[in-house]
Amino acid sequence: MDKHTTEFYDTIAEYYPYLFRDWERQLEREGLGLRATFRGKGVVRILDVGCGPGTQAIPLAKLDYHVVATDPSPGMLKMAHELAREHGVEDLITIERAEIDNLLDIVEGPFDGLVCKGNVLPHMLSDTEIEHALLIFWELLRPGGSIVIGLRDFESYLEYRPTFLPGLNHIDDNGYEFIAYEIWEWEEGPPVIATQNLYITEGMPNRFKTTKRSVSFRPLSTDEVKVVLLEIGYEDIEQQIDRTEQVITARKPLSGIRKSR
Fold this sequence. Notes:
- The chain is of the alpha/beta class.
- The protein contains 8 helices and 11 strands.
- The chain is globular.
């Protein structure tokens, strides 16, 4: 992840739970969905790559998985520590700052499962970067280990090229109000690149401020990701949709041997 992208997540980290209609419900859903995916596969130890504020790591720890969570953003890691403490699982999660490029130096595999959700892969703008990441994940998984990749469902975005996306409005008991919406800019490729301009308005009545934060990503299709997984040698590749997210699951073969090209 480049410096600009890391800075984007640093600046929005404190607001991240407000970007969901019901943050606690989101955590619960993530945990239940991942437990269903990992059930019966001998998964005990999980690596969460691009953990953000702990959206997946926290519910997984509450379900008694052994979780190592990594992210390049200090702001997101600070939130992950705070939220893990609030949920009583801070001692059950190992949280590390790491880029994908230095994962092999920071964390010790092998892992039974690996989770990479959100915009981690879409922030990689070239085919080479995506393949490099999936190869590193391969090295960190044990033979037979499972990988879960989540992507925003970009299919309709690529077809219609939306420029305005309404967000959410939260008001707490003290009158603090939070409003978020997005303006998107599109660059025709190949590959197609989108810039997300996130506008956040917050404050008390008559004392509001608005900030703009921007970040670029590649609106990946699931087919693009599945092709690379297949070429590397992952097996049992499946896809399902979970509301606004496409979820891809795959398995490192028991042989641990990659396909030759």
